[in-house]
Design brief:
This protein has nine helices and no strands. Helices cover 84% and strands 0% of the residues. The chain is elongated, with a radius of gyration of 29 Å. By secondary structure, it is mainly α. The protein has two domains: 177 residues, no CATH class; 50 residues, no CATH class.
Amino acid sequence: MTQIVEVGRRVLAPFCSLGRWYNETAKRHPVATGVWTSGLKTSAADAFAQKVLEGREEMDWKRHATFCTFGFLYLGGFQYWLYNVKFTQWCGPITSRFGHKASAPIKTFIDQAIHHPFMYFPTFYAIKASVTGKPMSYAVDKYKSEIWTSVKTLWTVWVPLQLINFAFVPRHLRVPYVAGVSFGWTMILSVMQGKFDKTAEVSESKLLSDSVRETVRMRDRLSNSPACARSLAHSLTHQSITHAPTRAFLPQMPSVSSSSNMPMPAAAVAQAKDL
């Protein structure tokens, strides 16, 4: 038995030394420790999600850049200030009077019901839009369509974990704690974003296909019915067709006045038949 204990100590000794070094580093440099831990963790979690869980042959580097930027700047930087400065100020009187266990539920409520729905996820979508070159309207649409599903998943994972964090974890280790246990959460969020993006691409492709099919039917009607061609030419003088696939399939129509009964020029009819 003594030999087993000794072997266990030797095996665990490097990890214990690493833990002590990390703890001392976090005490001396809490912000830097939080930033580097959160950023590297987020990068590793997204890479693991893409290559192992999703089995991608090629990394989605824009998606990876989104998570890295979010991990270093928001999770490591902003959340340190939020958890260790603002939460301490807001809940200081309760903590000083009743202890950390009494203030932990209040901090968890602020974090999960206010911070994450109205700051965490909007920031994530805004960073994603910036990294991928999309307008901010893209971030707003993503937030509106995905927030409820994301928040329900978030609460399942983080409500119990944050209760533990605010009740028992020392202040200088709170952000590293969040970074460590959120490796799994980041993989969940990464996979969810991949599925959301794929669903959006499929929906957009379906809309494009429906538009093209409708344009082809319109083209066939033009080629088979001069009367329909005249009617379409008349309508096109009063509205612009801006959809690129539609412009590609439709012939260039001449201007026709609303009172004109003249037949459509033969050249335009011939162009429609040639499509």
